[in-house]
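Quick note —
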Amino acid sequence: MVRLASGVALAAAVVAAVLLLPVTALRVVACAVAALAGREYFEIAGVHLRAVVLVVALCWVAAGPELPPAYVLLSMALLWVAVDVLFGGDSVHEAAAGLFASVYIGLPLGLLVAVHDAHGWPATLLLVATIVVSDSSQYYTGRLLGRRPLAPAISPNKTVEGALGGLVLGTAFMTLAGGRALPSAGPAALAGLGAFVVIMGICGDLFESRLKRDAAVKDSSSLIPGHGGVLDRVDALLFAVVPFYLFVRNIP
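Predicted structure written out below.
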């Protein structure tokens, strides 16, 4: 009951924010989510929490109307590593972990706001809803039909049948709902996008499961009753945002 109640409240908060908040406010919300998810990641990885600053900075930059050129982002990364290693006392490994977290967490959450800025709330909710449909389909298909484990060393409860169910229904949802959210994209393109987004979402889910398994923890935190932490809720979305962003930025 607690899981259901907190899940409904969380979904309502996400929908309300996407529908009602202006882009600048959404950038602030995305940065707050990035800070929470980044903190959880660093606690799992055993890295100094000051790297959250880099995660939030990249989230804010990526959420802007135009993503800065690659050389600007590279310069930011090199400056962070230099300061962190030479003056912060971290090892190269720790500095690299902080840098990776900014790309893993900060960049996708920022790009999600950029999608909203360019194509409005329908495109944003299309992506989020596709991930929700895929995740739910994986769970229920796996429970009903699951026989073969998908990645037993990482997530023993996930099955090949569940993943296929999520792939089929998630792709179908993207294809059907995408016609309204992205009217300039054809059904074939939406189907291909949906399949790729779902596959990336599954990879994101498994990636975070591997992080937790390596750290011997069940959830990234206990912040959300019945659901674990922020990172547990956005793990699939983090991997799915980038291909979706690259697709929508090239359509009118």
